[in-house]
Amino acid sequence: xxxxxxxxxxxxxxxxxxxxxxxxxxxxxxxxxxxxxxxxxxxxxxxxxxxxxxxxxxxxxxxxxxxxxxxxxxxxxxx
Length: 79
Prior knowledge:
alpha+beta; 29% helix
């Protein structure tokens, strides 16, 4: 765990960051930037940074995310 305080964000409601491996990226954001891992599933890691939230999206599963149902769910998550 980093000895630095967590980064502070202002004015961001939500954003998604595409990453190659969302599990590894989530640990990096937690350990180096002080963000909190809220939940990780097969495609996403939901992260908290101060009062704001962001999502790490696995690019590994991009083709699986292109189905109609997953596309609708992803669009809702990214709004």
